[in-house]
Design brief:
- By secondary structure, the protein is of the alpha+beta class.
- It contains 7 helices and 7 strands, in the order H-H-E-H-H-E-H-E-E-E-H-E-H-E.
- It has a single domain, classed as Alpha-Beta Complex (Aspartate Aminotransferase, domain 1), CATH 3.90.1150.
- A hairpin with a 6-residue loop joins strand 3 and strand 4.
- The longest helix has 20 residues.
- It starts with a helix and ends with a strand.
């Protein structure tokens, strides 16, 4: 590792043991979660110390899991506010039955909004909450997605997948 990377790692380890820093970090995730709940956005509770998970099934109940509701939410958030998030659901943890080739879908269907340490302010959290609130109010206008490309390493297909809007 480069020296700056080692230094960043060392600072992260020191901060991870600082109770005031941990309290700030946990409260920032809690703040975002509260802002989302005020707007009716369905989240997984309790919020974590590193981010917030939005329940893709409850957010888009009209989009079946084979049409990747959490991935659609990731795309909508990026379109609306330029905010990147990660799907953790049908694409990330979905697989195919080795005998039939049929899709096997996981129980989990979420979008993770990770909060990098020492990067975001509560104003950033407000941008995310406002964007998701707007998308949620207009959720019936969103359709699912179709998986059109996936890499050969199926356990990591969400890194190489290609989608089309339906």
């Amino acid at each position: 590792m480069a020296g700056r990377d080692l230094e960043g790692l060392a600072v992260g380890l020191q901060e991870g043991c600082d109770e005031q820093y941990l309290e700030y970090r946990i409260n920032q995730s809690k703040y975002l979660g509260e802002q989302l709940k005020e707007r009716g956005v369905p989240i997984v509770e309790p919020t974590g110390g590193h981010g917030v998970y939005v329940d893709g099934r409850r957010f888009f109940p009209h989009i079946p899991q084979h049409q990747f509701p959490s991935q659609r939410l990731v795309v909508a958030l990026y379109e609306e506010a330029g905010v990147r998030a990660l799907e953790i659901g049908a694409c990330a943890f979905g697989s195919k039955d080795p005998n039939t080739g049929e899709d096997i879908f996981p129980e989990i269907e979420t979008m993770r909004i990770a909060l990098s340490r020492r990067v975001y302010t509560n104003d950033h959290m407000d941008v995310i909450a406002n964007a998701l609130g707007y998308i949620y109010k207009n959720r019936d206008n969103y359709n699912g997605m179709k998986l059109v490309q996936e890499g050969s390493v199926t356990s990591l297909r969400h890194f190489t997948a290609g989608f089309e809007l339906l």
